[in-house]
Amino acid sequence: MAERETWTTRLGFILAAVGSAVGLGNIWRFPFLAADSGGGAFLVVYLIAILIVGIPALLAEFVIGRRANVDAIGAFREIGKGNWRFIGAVGVLASFWTLSYYSVIGGWVFRYVFGSATGSALAEPEAYFGAVSVGSSSVLTHIVFMAITIGVVAFGIERGIELATKFMVPSIVVLLLGLAAYAFTLPNAAPGYEFLFNPDFGTISSNLAQIIPAATGQALFSLSVGFSVMITYASYLGEDDSLGADGLTIAVTNTFIGILAGMVVLPLLFAGGLSVGAAGGGGPGAVFVAIPIALGDFPSLIGQIIGIVFFFVVLIAALSSAISLLEAPVAYVVDEFGVPRMQATAGIGGSAFVLGIPSAWDTAWLTWFDGLGVALLLPITVLFVVIFVGWILGDDAIDEIKKGMGGDSFGTVWLWSLRTFVLLAVVVVFLLNIHDLFFTVDEGTYIIPPPLQ
Known about the structure:
Layout: H1 10-36, H2 40-68, H3 74-78, H4 85-118, H5 120-123, H6 125-132, H7 135-154, H8 156-184, H9 190-197, H10 201-206, H11 208-222, H12 229-234, H13 243-271, H14 284-296, H15 300-337, H16 341-361, H17 363-393, H18 395-402, H19 409-439
């Protein structure tokens, strides 16, 4: 068997992990979720959730991956806990499941880059979204996006994922900085900044039941925790890397990009004469309808240029995440069955494409897939990862996280945080998601497939 690949540089791992975390979760979901959950109030709770829940959970996945140095499912066997392999299996399933409809959305973004260039996406935003988001047109762009994702992953860790993300992540940051600088100059943009950075603590206290689960769920989702992606990526690390330092760097960079996206999206909405209500709760219409409506109020050429740049950023972010979602199941097939990477990538990517056809054909299916993936599969994986690392690995987990760091205090504090409030937070989010799936049909993330609703 060929020697298993590793990251060529520490920076390569960090950028790949940031690329996985950024994705649509930050560029799309974060600004509109913040708009729907109180702006600055949400941001405060989100930052706290990243610090005390997101980072510890991220490090838990890193510990499993690096200790085993194999795929996310085989990792539990390698560290002598084979009866816990189901955790990795659910995470890999979550990656595969999410990739199937994520690619559909990525295909829409392709169309919006070109639609912004021609002006058609800005002229009649709702009609344009309706045309590109369903039917054969959506299936075609789904093919294109998935083919590019397969092409990158097929080249492996060094020549594929690491090389691609070294270009993608800096490009996202530079382009977002440029957009944020432009947004700052717009008239009527000031209320956008005030909404995002001026928290109303009365809103927090009166809406804790809504804001805390939303912020905690976003903290986990935006760090790619629960997909088995970070277990897989950490499995390509060496023992001299500091998991704590790398995890903190990834979380800070990811959070910075999310806030930067908010500094672009919210001022654009306000400058375009829209209220935060146009966010629509962060659904597909938020980025594909609200932003074009806002840009349509700008001078024609300026609106088109901003649209091209904005949707190009979204496209890069979507690709960087899709790459990681495909890598998790590919690593499993390559490591466990010895299938050549090219064949494994084509087979799994092709299967994810087929699974995504219903989502491409009808957005009702996409909503259903997203509901099960984010609200059910993801929190199940996170919950059992936290239990496993906190209570089963225990001292071995401290042993692993100390490598490349030294000292005992950080590992002990981290482990007990997993055992207590991180576990509690994840349980609460999981139970609330279960409630939404099974008992609040009107929310749209219910368990019943569209044909039976």
